[in-house]
Specification:
Layout (H helix, E strand, L loop, with lengths): L18 H4 L6 H21 L20 H12 L2 H9 L14 H7 L3 H9 L15 H5 L3 H9 L15 H7 L3 H8 L6 H14 L2 H13 L50 E3 L2 E3 L7
Antiparallel strand pairs: 1-2
Helix pairs in contact: 3-4, 3-5, 5-6, 6-8, 8-10, 9-10, 9-11, 10-12, 11-12
């Protein structure tokens, strides 16, 4: 779902209006105004949800304030165009390697977003922050490099964080590699010593839901190496996906006979919340009348 510009297919316009709404000319003015307010609210949410890096990054940075140096502008342009000589020249002239455009995009972001693998490598060699990200939605260079497996490999080798989540697609780079079906990107990220078990677990659930069996198995092995014991942190489990490890869960039990009951404990009061399982502990809520 994230390419050179992340896929916005999840941010489509609202569906066509129903017949009832199409005939609102006959509705009361108050209902008319209420519906208009709802439409304006939805439009505002969709507009504010579109990240700057999800649009095409600016073709030119000439609209930047006057205090941005000409060398800095040349660095951004050279990174976007994959001009290695231009990058070297701009840095020699004093451009800041992590100098950011107004949305927070650095030269590394530009290079990763445009698939300029050699430019990504050069910027990392010159000390660019591998965790560079846009300010508005926290999309990182690692997100944007997918599906360029070589750029992903270079970023991971430089220490880029595969656990960082963007704020629009709510996805880690590892999860995005699964969704984009970029197995080479997935393999590259699995070499990162920064990978956290919950990130692997979530990515595996995404792979299972997408029917990507080979990716799911690859992630299962990575989890097994870390000795990860899956937890159940919320209603419907991790990410609300409703997926659980293993099989053969009981569908019936009997407290009187002990059928399918491993242990039990009395809990006073009433509650309807989902239990949380974390490690070898189970957490429940209850309300006791006083």
């Amino acid at each position: 779902m994230i390419a050179r510009s992340p896929d916005l297919s999840s941010i489509r316009g609202w569906p066509p209006l129903s017949r009832r709404h199409r005939s609102m000319d006959h509705a009361s003015p108050k209902r008319h105004l209420g519906a208009l307010n709802v439409i304006l609210l939805i439009a505002s949410i969709v507009f504010l949800s579109i990240p700057l890096s999800a649009q095409e990054l600016p073709e030119s940075v000439t609209r930047e304030p006057a205090d941005v140096s000409e060398a800095q502008q040349r660095l951004w342009d050279a990174a976007r165009d994959g001009d290695l000589g231009g990058i070297e020249a701009a840095l020699a002239d004093g451009a800041a390697i992590d100098g950011a455009y107004r949305d927070g995009a650095s030269a590394l972001i530009y290079a990763a977003q445009r698939g300029r693998t050699d430019a990504v490598r050069l910027l990392l060699e010159r000390g660019a922050d591998p965790d560079a990200r846009s300010i508005m939605n926290q999309t990182t260079a690692l997100h944007l490099a997918i599906p360029d497996a070589e750029a992903v490999e270079a970023l991971v080798a430089a220490g880029a964080d595969p656990n960082r989540r963007d704020l629009v697609l709510d996805c880690t780079p590892l999860g995005c590699a699964v969704l984009r079906r970029c197995r080479d990107c997935l393999r590259a990220m699995l070499t990162s010593d920064r990978l956290e078990a919950p990130t692997l677990w979530e990515a595996r659930q995404l792979a299972r839901r997408a029917g990507a069996q080979a990716d799911s198995e690859m992630l299962r092995r990575a989890l097994a190496k870390r000795g990860f014991e899956p937890s159940w942190p919320q209603f419907r489990g991790p990410g609300g996906l409703g997926h659980a490890e293993g099989g053969g869960a009981p569908t019936r039990w009997n407290l009187e006979t002990g059928e399918n009951v491993l242990w039990s404990t009395p809990i006073a009061g009433l509650a309807h919340s989902s239990p949380v399982v974390w490690g070898d502990q189970v957490f429940v809520t209850t309300a006791v009348s006083s």
